[in-house]
From TrEMBL:
This is Glycosyltransferase, catalytic subunit of cellulose synthase and poly-beta-1,6-N-acetylglucosamine synthase. Keywords: Glycosyltransferase, Membrane, Transferase, Transmembrane, Transmembrane helix. SUPFAM superfamilies: ARM repeat, Nucleotide-diphospho-sugar transferases. It comes from Geotoga petraea. Belongs to the glycosyltransferase 2 family.
Amino acid sequence: MRKFRQKEAYYIEKVGKNFKDIDIDLIIENRVHLNQLIEHIKIVDMSDEEKEKYTQIFINNNVHKKYIKRLSSLSKIRRKEAAVILGYIKTYDVLRELEIALIREKKEDVKFYILWAIVKHKNKNSIPVILRSVKNSTPFYFNKVSSLMVDYGKDLYYYLSYKMDTDEEYLQKLIINFASYFPKESFRFFLIEKATKSSSKEIKELAVNALSENYPEVLDDEFFLKNDDEEIRKKAIEAIAYKNNFSTIIKVSEFLADEKVYQTAISTISSILRSRPGLIEKVVELFKKEKNSEKKKAYARILSLRIEYFMYKLMSRDKEYAKEIIKEIMFSHKTSEIIDFVNKNKIEEIEIEMISVLNSVKSDDYVKRELSYYLNGDLLEKLSLEREEPESLPHFVTNEKGKIKFQWFFLLITFLIPIAIFYFTKYDFIQNNEQTEILKEFVVDFNIYLGFYVISLNLIYLIILVFSYLEKYRQETLWNLKNMEMLTKEGILPSISVIAPAYNEEKNIVESVNSLLSLDYPEYELIVVNDGSKDSTLEKLKSYFYLEKIDYVVNEKLMTRPIRGIYFNKNIPNLIVIDKENGGKADSLNVGINVASKEYICGIDADSILESDSLYKLVSVTIDEPNGISAVGGNIIPVNGSKTDRGFFEEVKIPKNPLALFQTIEYIRAFLAGRLGWSSINSLLIISGAFGLFNREDTIQAGGYMTESERYGKNTLGEDMELVVRVLSGIKERKSKRKISFVYNANAWTEVPEKFWSLFVQRDRWQKGLIDILHFHRRKIFNKNYGTMGLIGLPYHFIFEALGPIFEFSGIVVFLIGLYLGIVSFEIFIFLFIAVVMLGTVVSISSFIIAEDEVNYFSFKETIVLLIFSILENFGYRQFQNFVRLFSYFNSMRSRQSWGKSKRKGFNK
């Protein structure tokens, strides 16, 4: 790869980066491969004349003939590559061959690449061929066609104008999608007809969506507002908000008692109040007059979002009126915003009035309980209330006693297996020798068992490395076929909600958020969730980004701890900051999922920094998976040693701290080699919380991250792995072909512990989480109904990751006993040395070879240092890791789980 880059640099120097004065003779003279020229053309903006010049170069060198043949290759990757290159050779013959290939092709991910090449030719005569290819296609291909066909503009409009009377559903859907981009009067009538008369539920809903975008006034009709279809009702309610008047509020308020659409109604009224705050007094009157208890609660929720308005009225002549409204809101059990405001209030006059209000409402059991949970200590004392801890929900699915029995059982099995093997293989020896001789023989044999165990483990690593290498080659080839023109095209890549939970992250939070806001991606939002931090995390965010608290209606699909407030800056529209009661990382992610509005959610630690193109690389795999991606993980690299400024790298260096260096080796091996291989056999069970992507609907369907608040009534320390296992289980149970994947070159940088105790705390938490997950999903281990996850993935983690440390520690103890007794021979010592040290080193070095593209951030000298440390880690560091995992196994039998945090020193600036 480095050699290729050197050639590339030489070529740019000789020819010029913009290729303004390219000469065919120069290409031939320097023997620069034409494919290399193609790679440059893909990333450089050129005029039509320049493109014509390159087309001539390709034709003169018969490049087109070679790649036309490849359109019929057995390899999907070769067919994709051929399509991409032929997209740059704009002749009639090439276009004709591409059209034939499009109709012939069966694989929809390949069809997309051929479609991309055809659209680049911009020939209107291709429109019928493209539309023909859509028939009987899946949503994957249909959506791609809908996005790309927009490029044909008026030509497509004229063609579709003659197809409006079609009975073909796929054509109707295409016309509806096109109408969203080109609001023409003829399309308006077509949309109304399909929204009112179509027999297809899908067509109706698509037409209503298009009407809401371009003709919202059409939906202000009882046919839509009182439609039997829930989705149509929701769209109609949202659409009529454009009027922004009190009559619309009256109309929408009729739906506040409809449990299927009341969330939409609340959101619509709240959005009207945001733009017309003067209407709040009229909404208060509606609230006071309302007799229906459900509608009254809905009004209370709307008004509670604007509680500051009433709080400041406590200092005016209308304070009695404001106090009554606040009481009503609290009696309606909308308390979180009020409690949060009172806790942060520093105005004595407001405090005095609010103590009076709170004294009058604390008779309500619910309100009293919320006050005792969340009100600050001074105010509790003034109200004569005592602090209580929030109640945990019951553990519906599992319990700690069951897990402890599970652990004791397999602990016993782990100790008994080597004894049983020894007994059955050396039965005659046991019968004919004394106990001392039997013990010596057992010590020798146990060391041999240990050697074979370690050899088996390293052989599994090496097999996974082979799969990693093949998967890396596939991903690298596919990534090189894509260019920014393709990736930035609207509708090609899914939208993303990046969720960053933060707990006591004051040292790194501004750096991280700056980094996340600078991501190069066409459509994403950043949701930072402050999980009740006790430091100045929230204050730093509010101050640096000029955030203001806003009224925001959250659709609570997942149950979570209460939200204190949502903050926003209209000049940074893709940043949302949520302040909530402390509930742990998983609870914070669930809050983010509830607020998220995009197709995928990307969980990332708030103390991590993403490279600018990381999201592109992570999400680009969706183009090559027509069956869909449920989750995909990215690569994690330690940031220790590197210098950053406001979330951007100034200098990339390896860590100076030896402990961080060992972790760098470990991360390279685990991510770039290990997880890549597991994903290739669809058995990847871990997507790091520091950087992972999940389909939002799949995640909600699975129940979100496991917490006490959600359906499972249980917390876990391994929330990332547990969610992956549950999502993958759902895929298998539904017999879906969706995938869990890992992308080797999508990088996130994060700070790793530099002190043994901090590392101990982190790894202790990880191991406890693993044990808890394996117990919770124990029925799936060795269960063929769950495919490779049940037969390979879970058994591997159970045998080698959970029980392995017990066996390895036992082996070390027995080895030391053998040394003490003088019965460990030189041959056994060499055998164990080869099994433990040499094979371990081979695995680490092999990982470096596979990860070569990604470790080239570091200099040659730094790479040598990393290689040396990959050998040294076998003498102490790996034993330390095994000790931590062994300790965690026993400790998890008695300790309570919590979302602990290692101490951070902050990024180097």
